[in-house]
Please model this.
Amino acid sequence: MRWWYVLPDLVDCFKAEFGEIAQLEVVSDPASLASKGYALNSLRISGGLEKSSIGIDIGNATTVVTRFSNDQ
Model:
């Protein structure tokens, strides 16, 4: 089990508490979410050059790197 696994009961509790005032969405891979966002921003700034675009999320314990590939 990954450490970022969200328990369904916890999601249900949040929906019960905040469901009327906020939409709750649980992402599929939260550990790489920031680096994916940085990669998309890099792609935007580079004018769409995938080979020049990269996302790096440097954390205290881990670093996550996201790059674009033709294998998508």
User: Anything to note?
Assistant: Strands lie at 54-58, 63-67. The first strand starts at residue 54 and ends at 58.
